[in-house]
């Protein structure tokens, strides 16, 4: 429990005790006010101080002002018990609000603990404890059992299991062995791991997560902004109505001043907009916190709100629905041996970080003689043009080679439903390498879940060839497929589909590669696969899935819909009760205790309802 909550709880307990004491003390006459006044000062001094502080800054039409005026007015007309009770129950309501907010913040703050304060730097077989900021790319660090991994790296020595729950929300530990990528923020469960650092702390996974979390609360949803604007106009309006209520009947209709002043004070207590102002932002904060527990980072309330309106979902194939780990399946060599063809391809592709390029280099499996590589130029979405051992080498798709006037032999067979890299040497076709990319085990579940969420259209966008794309789509149950798309073609396709959605519906795109960054930015909601996705994709996206599980796209949509349902419940409930009791107060049919319920009671119930967003399943 935070110090501020403890202080408020102590204030409430002491104030309640003093109020009970005031009720039982046998005081009469002018002394009767004394114990009530002491109790009032204990429970309300901070509220009064804020009200007068805001008055100096010309920001006086808020709940502090309403509470102060209403309670001082109650003392003025001799209703001491009601005056103290209003302030006491307001403080109790605020205590519940603070506790709920604290729980919401705690769920997000758990992520803030994933950044270790130190790293064990290994230099000349000596371990030195340093700040993670001091470790450079290429340095070696040691992570002992039970320690949190401070930086991203490649496992060099040791093996075992790591707890990834802080990043992915998954409870099952992951087994790692030498050569595996290990992400910062995970916990080493057993043994000693030796890592070669691949990212500085500033660029590490854990640092990016913390940055996303810190930015999330700054991006407000339209509903949140509406409530803020509503309160800005609503409060002055009800203060004006209360003032008119206290003045017009006594002055123009000879009504008792005491009765109408009491009605106006009750009206002020009822009118306090606390339930809306607190519970609506808390609902969004709770939804973001609940999503973070499942390894889904939503960058703001505006994106959480937009997710609930998702209508069309566009998905990339490689790395999103498939594992993105290509494996060389077959080598069809025409003018030279398979090993020689693979070596030319590996040298040409060695400067690229594309999954296909990395797979070809891995398949070669030997140290490459980089002295043979004079130059290499990658043409995004097409292939690579390189000079290897003095020869012009082209490695890419069929269109790429045909643009360089390479003739394909009609009698040379290779499977059309596979991913292919064609090789040409000095403008002569030399052979084809075929690769396969396995569909993720969660992909079918992801598509089925999205359909259950009411997504109207599911569309596959990919740069891969038509036969491969249609095979994947048919396997997963995706009806619309657009294949052989360059990055610019994907953007154009998104623009075209944008025109086909409804006015209120949102278009969502999920991808992982650097080529997806423009599309992620163009869509209403961009979702990036975080742990394997490129930095550019994660930066451009509005939502990041930390474990690359496409099924969590539907989970994110489900959380957003349930959060928005809670927001709507709170708005309807708070306004409905508020306006009903306001009418009763204006007609003289509500007393101060009913006013307290309409303010504090409604606020507490709305806050408790908002806290359910943290427990969404």
Task: Explain the overall architecture.
It is elongated, with a radius of gyration of 32 Å. It has 617 residues and is of the alpha+beta class. It contains 20 helices and 22 strands. A 7-stranded mixed β-sheet has the order 10-22-21-20-11-18-19, with helices on both faces. Among the domains are: 96 residues, Calcium-transporting ATPase, cytoplasmic transduction domain A (Distorted Sandwich), CATH 2.70.150; 110 residues, 3-Layer(aba) Sandwich (Calcium-transporting ATPase, cytoplasmic domain N). The model has no long low-confidence stretch (mean pLDDT 82).
What's the structural blueprint in terms of helices and strands?
Elements: H1 3-24, H2 33-56, H3 63-76, H4 80-112, E1 119-123, E2 126-130, E3 140-143, E4 153-157, E5 160-163, H5 165-168, E6 174-176, E7 181-182, E8 187-188, E9 193-197, H6 205-216, H7 222-253, H8 257-271, H9 274-293, E10 296-298, H10 301-307, E11 310-316, E12 327-333, H11 338-349, H12 355-364, E13 373-379, E14 383-388, E15 391-396, H13 398-403, E16 419-425, E17 428-436, H14 443-452, E18 457-461, H15 466-476, E19 480-482, H16 487-498, E20 506-511, H17 517-522, E21 525-529, H18 535-540, E22 543-545, H19 551-586, H20 592-610
Parallel strand pairs: 11-18, 11-20, 18-19, 20-21, 21-22
Antiparallel strand pairs: 1-2, 1-3, 3-9, 4-7, 4-9, 5-6, 5-8, 10-22, 12-17, 13-14, 14-15, 15-16, 16-17
Helix pairs in contact: 1-2, 1-4, 2-3, 2-4, 3-4, 3-8, 4-9, 4-20, 7-8, 7-9, 8-19, 8-20, 9-19, 9-20, 10-19, 11-12, 14-19, 19-20
């Amino acid at each position: 429990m935070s110090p501020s909550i403890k202080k408020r709880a102590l204030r409430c307990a002491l104030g309640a005790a003093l109020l009970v004491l005031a009720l039982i003390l046998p005081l009469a006459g002018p002394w009767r006010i004394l114990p009530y006044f002491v109790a009032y000062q204990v429970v309300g001094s901070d509220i009064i101080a804020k009200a007068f502080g805001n008055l100096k800054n010309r920001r006086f039409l808020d709940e502090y002002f309403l509470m102060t005026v209403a309670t001082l007015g109650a003392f003025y007309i001799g209703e001491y018990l009601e005056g103290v009770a209003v302030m006491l129950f307001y403080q109790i309501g605020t205590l519940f609000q603070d506790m709920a907010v604290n729980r919401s913040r705690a769920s997000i703050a758990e992520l803030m603990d994933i950044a270790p304060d130190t790293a064990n730097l290994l230099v000349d077989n000596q371990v030195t404890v340093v700040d993670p900021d001091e470790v450079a790319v290429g340095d070696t660090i040691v992570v002992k059992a039970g320690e949190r991994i401070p930086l991203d790296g490649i496992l060099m020595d040791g093996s075992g299991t790591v707890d990834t729950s802080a990043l992915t929300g998954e409870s099952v530990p992951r087994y790692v062995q030498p050569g595996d990528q290990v992400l910062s923020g995970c916990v080493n469960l057993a043994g000693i791991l030796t890592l070669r650092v691949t990212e500085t702390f500033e660029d590490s996974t854990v640092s990016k997560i913390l940055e996303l979390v810190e930015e999330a609360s700054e991006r407000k949803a339209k509903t949140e902004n509406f409530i803020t604007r509503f309160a800005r106009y609503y409060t002055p309006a009800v203060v004006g109505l209360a003032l008119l209520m206290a003045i017009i009947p006594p002055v123009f209709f000879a009504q008792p001043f005491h009765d109408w002043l009491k009605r106006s004070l009750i009206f002020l207590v009822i009118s306090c907009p606390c339930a809306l102002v607190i519970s609506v932002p808390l609902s969004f904060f709770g939804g973001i916190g609940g999503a973070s527990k499942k390894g889904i980072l939503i960058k703001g309330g505006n994106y959480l709100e937009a997710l609930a309106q998702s209508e069309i979902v566009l998905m990339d194939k490689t790395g999103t629905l498939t594992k993105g780990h290509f494996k060389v399946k077959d080598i069809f060599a025409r003018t030279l041996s398979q090993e020689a063809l693979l070596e030319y391809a590996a040298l040409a592709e060695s400067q690229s970080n594309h999954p296909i390029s990395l797979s070809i280099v891995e398949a070669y499996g030997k140290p490459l003689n980089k002295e043979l590589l004079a130059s290499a130029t990658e043409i995004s979405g097409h292939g690579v043009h390189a000079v290897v051992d003095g020869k012009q080498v082209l490695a890419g798709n069929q269109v790429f080679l045909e643009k360089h006037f390479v003739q394909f032999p009609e009698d040379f067979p290779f499977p059309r439903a596979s991913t292919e890299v064609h090789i040409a040497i000095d403008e002569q076709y030399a052979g084809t390498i075929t690769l396969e990319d396995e569909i993720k085990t969660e992909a079918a579940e992801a598509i089925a879940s999205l359909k259950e969420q009411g997504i109207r259209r599911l569309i596959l966008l990919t740069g891969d060839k038509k036969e491969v794309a249609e095979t994947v789509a048919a396997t997963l149950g995706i009806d619309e497929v657009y294949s052989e798309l360059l990055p610019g073609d994907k953007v154009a396709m998104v623009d075209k589909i944008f025109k086909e959605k409804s006015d209120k519906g949102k278009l969502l795109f999920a991808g992982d590669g650097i080529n997806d960054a423009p599309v992620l930015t163009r869509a209403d909601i961009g979702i990036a696969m975080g742990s394997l996705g490129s930095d550019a994709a994660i930066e451009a996206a509005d939502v990041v899935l930390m474990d690359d599980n496409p099924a969590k796209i539907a989970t994110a949509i489900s959380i957003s819909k349930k959060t928005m349902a809670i927001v709507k419940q709170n708005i309807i409930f708070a306004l409905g009760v508020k306006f009903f009791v306001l009418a009763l107060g204006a007609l003289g049919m509500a007393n101060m205790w009913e006013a307290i319920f309409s303010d504090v009671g409604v606020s507490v119930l709305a806050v408790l309802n908002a806290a359910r967003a943290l427990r969404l399943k």
